[in-house]
Amino acid sequence: MEITITSQTENVLLNRKEIGFSITFTGATPSRKMVHAKLAAMLSAPKDQLVIGSLHNRFGLTEITGDARVYTSAEYLKKIEPEYIRKRGMAGEEEGNADAQDAPSGDAAEAS
User: Across 12-61, where does the E strand assignment appear?
Assistant: First the structure.
């Protein structure tokens, strides 16, 4: 998987950098978690301050285009980004916790 930065804009008003990127890959389509980790390492940004906005994969091609945002602090990210974007666009514990909270416990499933 190779990531190429296509555009980078500083948005001072929202305390973030807006990044456009392109990914070329072979084999299976990379997951959001893989893209998030590699993009964070590439930009030297903390993972809790980076959110992936969108990923667009064209049918039949091994290329993805997308956009991401890097905030100056995690507080700004939580203040500006909607919750569903934070859960979808950030890799890590937040995704696992949301799944664990939605899953019914074993006792409740047996009682039904």
Answer: 16-24, 50-57
Number of domains observed in the structure of the chain: 1
Residue 51 has pLDDT above 90, yes or no: yes
- Which pTM value belongs to this model? 0.74
> Rounded mean pLDDT of 54-60?
91
| Residue 84 belongs to domain with CATH number | 3.30.70.330
CB 16, CB 53: distance < 8 Å: no
HEC letters along 36-49: HHHHHHHHCCCHHH
- pLDDT for residue 40: 93
List CB contacts of 44: < 8 A, sequence separation 6 or more.
Answer: none
